[in-house]
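Data deposition worksheet. Section B asks for the primary sequence of the deposited chain exactly as it was used as input, without tags or linkers unless they were present during the calculation. Section C holds the resulting structure in token form. Section D is free text for depositor observations; keep each observation to a single sentence. Incomplete worksheets are returned to the depositor.
Section A, Depositor: J.P.
Section B:
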Amino acid sequence: MTDQALSMRAVLSGALAALFVGSLTNTIVGIALPTIAGELGGQDQVPWVASAALLTMTVATPLWGKAADRKGPRPSLIAALGVFVAGSLVAGCALSMSALIVGRAVQGVGAGGVLALTNALVAGLVPARRRGLYTAWFGVAFGTASVAGPLVGGLLVGLPGLGWRWCFLGVVPVALAAALLVRLAPHRAPEAPRGGVDILGGALLAACASGLVLLLSVGGRAWPWSSWPTVALGGAVLVLAAACVRREHRAADPILPPRLFARPGLRVACATSFLVGAVMFGGVIYLPQYLQVVRGRGATEAGLLMLPQVGTMIVASTLSGYLISRTGRWKVFPVVGCALVTAGAVLLSPIAPDTSPWWLAAAMAVLGAGTGLTQQVLVLVAQTSVRTGDVGVAGAAATFSRTLGGAVGVAAFGAMISARLRSGTPSGQEPGRLLGTPEHVAELPAQVADSVRASYTAGLASVFLVAVPLAAVALAAVLLLRETRLDARP
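Section C:
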């Protein structure tokens, strides 16, 4: 094997390790939240431990994509890993809930760069057709991290001598090793920037995305949907969105260039990534809670029961990447993938407290296969829709759409479940205080525990019922795409 081939394998290994730890940060913390709240206090701030990283990751992703197009993907990815390590150390050493939230926010900024720049790094090193195989491995890393987070978190929290802090500290050596391997990649200097950094556009985009996620997080929970704070926040989001679009049309070198969205491939890739991301993250976040709250499974067991979803996601992602590299054809994979995501949502929509474990496993397997065939291929479609100098921002746009869809899905679906819990549990009970570990739910009075299980399941069934038309719209969108054969040449 040549030195160049060995170097390429090392770079790919570093990119995969970076993507794995960057994706793991979204799901590993959920299992640890009850323990964290017990040690640090601040129960009212617990939701922000989970959402702070997801929010900052969402808004940072397109900014890192633009950095890759201006400075190159290698130095930008190393910088993102540095930010991720800093945030992980702050979170792992936090002595208060406020410090932990700050650490998680910084961690999310770095993770946003990792998710956007790993694809950009490989896009600059291999031709489009071979890129399908590499993006398949990225799909494996992303899917494994997303679904295995509860299992890893449960093991770390439960093992003697470790604890919840290692959910953050444990990723530091992996991220540092990834940065050392990424340094082996050749630095490809991009074209000279067309203008100054679009700071105002980046700020408006970040404020708009943050406001949208915040609106869906507090609407119907902290504030009624018809209350003046909710209406005011919704109006502010619309104003920010209009100002952002206006700014991006006028900026010399915009964060998300509007001219790129004139290309149907990029448009459809971003829209589909948003819709499928909402459905995927809804399943990844709330199915483990269902297994614990309703079925009484422990954290580790719940993580193991998610294996049908992660297993089919890995197989589907690997197979699609291999076939794309062999044939140069790609359209069939997101089409079949979106159809399977739709079918998986349909199969999960009648979920009940006593749903057959075999039915549940089969439905999760279908959902996992659908996301495995779809998500990373859409990043490839976005990248191949634009010229070389825009590959970084195009890939980041698709990743941003997926992450924003996930953030919106988690917030909106969580509001639906909370509303169902509020209406289905005894009056005077705060739903957030009724949820917890299986042991906590089992200690509730029998009537209250039964109402919690039934209400949570009914809310989750509504989530998947809403997910069906979302996935169907994604399927209709990819059917309209015109396939162009990928070039095997550099």
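Section D:
The chain has a mean pLDDT of 79.
DSSP finds 19 helices and no strands in the chain.
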